[in-house]
Amino acid sequence: MTYLPKPRLHHPSLACNSLGYTRRDYEGKISTLCAGCGHDSISAAIVRACWELAIEPHRVAKLSGIGCSSKTPDYFLGPSHGFNTVHGRMPSVLTGANLANRDLLYLGVSGDGDSASIGIGQFVHAIRRGVCMVYIVENNGVYGLTKGQFSATADIGSVSKKGVVNTDAPIDLVGLALQLGATYVARGFSGDKEQLVPLIKGAIAHRGAAIIDVISPCVAFNNHAGSTKSYDYVREHNDAINRLDFITPREEITVDYAPGELIEVEQHDGSSLRLRKLETAYDPSDRVAAMTYVHERQAAGEIVTGLLYVDPEAQDLHTHLKTVAAPLNSLDATVLCPGAAVLDKINAALR
Amino acid sequence: MKAITAVNDFVIKFANVNGSGSASANELFAKAILRMGVPVSPRNIFPSNIQGLPTWYEVRVSADGWLGRRGGIDFMVAMNPQTFDADVAEIAAGGYLFYDSTRPLPKSKFRDDVRTLAMPITQICNATYDDPRQRQLFKNIIYVGALSLLLGIDAEVFEALIGEQYRNKPKLYEPNVRALHIGRDYAREHFAGQPIGLAVQRADAVGDRIFVDGNSAAALGCVYGGASVCAWYPITPSSSVAEAFEKYCGKYRVDADSGARNYAIVQAEDEIASIGMVVGAGWNGARAFTTTSGPGVSLMTEFIGLAYFAEIPLTIINVQRGGPSTGMPTRTQQADLLSCAYASHGDTRHVLLFPEDPHECFEFSAQALDLADRLQTPVFVMTDLDIGMNQRLCAPLRWDGARVYDRGKVMSAAELEAGKDFGRYKDVDGDGIPWRTWPGTHPSKGAYFTRGTSRDPYARYSERGADYIYNVQRLLTKFDTAKAMVPQPIERNAARATRFGAIHFGSTAPAMDEAIVALEREGLPLDTLRIRAFPFPDSVAQFIAAHERVFVVEQNRDAQLRSMLVNEFGIDPARLVPVLHFDGTPITARFITGSIARELRGAQVPTHPAEAANA
Q1: Which of A24, A76, A288, B462 could disulfide-link to B467, CB 3.0 to 4.6 Å?
Q2: B594 lies in a domain?
Q3: Number of domain units in chain A
Q4: Which residues from chain B sit within 8 angstroms of residue A323, using beta carbons?
Q5: Residue B247: what are its φ and ψ, rounded to 5°?
Q6: pTM of the model
Q7: B202 CB near a chain A CB, below 8 Å?
């Protein structure tokens, strides 16, 4: 949390997006996280994704729980409403906010303690309901704010900074999201922005529950030898299955691709996801195959990154509930109140 | 032993097996008496069970219109062999026992001072119906038929009600009417020679009142009050609020052309998620509510503290049941006052509304949605199982067609554009209520970061003591503002001046009304004050100050309202005499009258109120 605004001055040559905003217009306050924290790289990736997509900043609602990760919504998208809720309960607040106004973009930011421990129930149920949201877990395997305790995503055998060896089985958030029916599941690495930014853009365009598990090393408590979530470890074991390019409907597709197999997936809003496959055996439209692949590579000690699964025909909670197209918070008594005459009829039936 | 004789003034109790289909037959019986123009107040006494355990339905018939539970049973319909002995023992001397005599019972099972009316119902059903399901279900209609003849209720009244009930299933009309007449015919043949002393006679004491349960009325209040988001988790005795909300929304909130729904209801994974969704929806500008009972409130307290501190409007309908822990999940109490009024850690205070009956459940639920928006805080509607799950005769529901929803201080895009100063937690009007903005309002103005941590008036994170004090003192100012906005207490003075008063709230009202008349008749007049909300308006303190001693009548063990009165007003506790009923049954006029009369005559208040209830 900080109260320090960033200076608004910027170089006149800074590029503008189609709304006329520069990237600086998508920034927030100065981060108070540790220098080198992976979370700050994720904030920067969110800023870039939103700027490149020309999202109106005030049409984003950013919500978080409690912890280092959950502080970050203060550090990006300053013109957006933010809500730092209670520990592990961001998904329910986001769900309610989404019910009230389906026209905004809901960005949930959480951590591994927030989502895999105290909040795993809400993580699970928001996904299975198909809440339309971008849910980013900034996953460092450790409780940073309370100084270095293991979280539920820490791998067996991982060594803490104090030398303690973790013996509890880890919770794999992408495996869980796939099993629960998330319609957009990705894993990124905070140290690989070129991969992460398109993953976020694809999630923003997705009309369902989009989950991105981002391995985000904690420079203070989980970046040492023996940790499986350090920069060095993740770089050595990263198994990127694909490289994503995100193309909006108005863009002409002129990107040059390196040789290799390409898959193009068109989402509901007309945007395209262009996947350059690095693993020829991998099919991101097959949920069961994705689960198997992720588990196999995990058993082999690899961290699979990239777009793991996408269902371009996804439906969301509002579709299931058959809610009206207008935001519920815009309805007034003329729509919501059945009126005095109806009440007289109700009274008559109760005699 | 002289048989009890009474016209339009008795208590009849049905002892049934849960899941046997008795509930609708018993309700038919109660409604028929209402149609005769005679007030009734029925109460379900049911177990935490789906099928097999004992369940009772107690109907008080009262020409004078008393709607509280009376206590004492004049007529028992004993249909449950499991509880037969206890049911027989409960009948008042001179009362009546009606039972299924298919299986012979030894004489030791009966009482000399109770008249027995035997009817071989199972045998009749087995002889009449082939289908095992019909054999079971029509037993209930057959005993209702027999009772209707015994008590002198017209067959046409029942026939009309059955016709209304099966308007859409006409095939069911004829067999039900037939079963009714099987019962009537048997009673005519076997009991008419020696009529019983209880009778229902046509009267005109019901008026235009309606017969509805508080949970349905609360749900309608939420529909009329403009709630568009409901998140809930099933818990007895509150589930039927959400279910009724869904039913009424399905009828009145669906766009006729498109089929689109102007509401969203989510059955959440637990109470924490329910309140979380309501917090999110309230923050984002929708009117949102949840419905729960005591254990749910316990789970919700962290979020309630957030909503208090971050100032988010939301409504919680708490249908109270017996606590603590799982407590008595199907019995009634008023024992969540303290846990709701001061819910969550740190210094908190929440607005509570106390409806007395379904009519006020409707009124207060709609009003709670206004108050929550106006005050930007959680508002509790504190109903209970007695009001919530029993049908009660009450004034018709009313809605002023000109009423608009009071959305409170929400700053618009135009106001922001015009440069109006926006400090989310700044008191600009002197009432402690700040202005808020909804997410997405303006491209560059009015956004702020909502958090449960301390902040300055412009919503910027701050750990400065002065900022914290400003904020929490403003919350107190706001709570003070609420005093004039909540439903005001209702004072009723005795015919002649008295030094004594009584304070009560919620579902105690009908028993209290009756008790006051009884006490006055005994030469013990009392003024009464029915509190309808917390924060307590100053008139509550004035009422207490104007009386030497004030009885505080409530349905919990620890005198929770009394504690709050002492706490909020700094009143000498000796002046507030607790009258406490908490065995899970609804409080009775007899209990209140006995307790207060004993105290006023210098005797000690009984240490165990349940004993006094049966005294």
Answers
A1: B462
A2: yes
A3: 1
A4: 260-264
A5: -65, -50
A6: 0.95
A7: no
